[in-house]
């Protein structure tokens, strides 16, 4: 492999890792948002959220 190819692959790997981390962070925030939203809607409707699961 040429040095340029190795550098390109290393850059690609770093970019993929960064994208993976950002996606995981987004998914975590989205899950937290959905949980909070569910809890708020259950409270508005006076539903026992814990009993529904």
Structure commentary:
The mean pLDDT is 92. 87% of the residues lie in helices and 0% in strands. The longest helix is centred in the middle third of the chain and has 42 residues, at 3-44. The protein is mostly helical and 53 residues long. It contains two helices and no strands.
Number of strands: 0
Summarize the amount of helix as a percent range: over 70%
Rounded average pLDDT = 92
Could you tell me the strand content as a percent range?
A: under 5%
Distance between the termini: 54 Å
Briefly summarize what is shown.
This protein is mainly α and 53 residues long.
Q: How are the SSEs ordered, and which strands pair?
A:
Layout: H1 3-44, H2 49-52
Keywords:
single chain, rod-shaped, mainly alpha, 2 helices, 53 residues
């Amino acid at each position: 492999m040429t040095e340029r190819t190795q550098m390109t692959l290393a850059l690609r790997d770093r970019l993929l890792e960064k994208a993976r981390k950002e996606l995981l962070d987004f998914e975590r925030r989205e899950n937290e948002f959905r949980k909070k939203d569910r809890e708020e809607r259950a409270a508005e409707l006076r539903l026992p959220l814990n009993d529904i699961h």
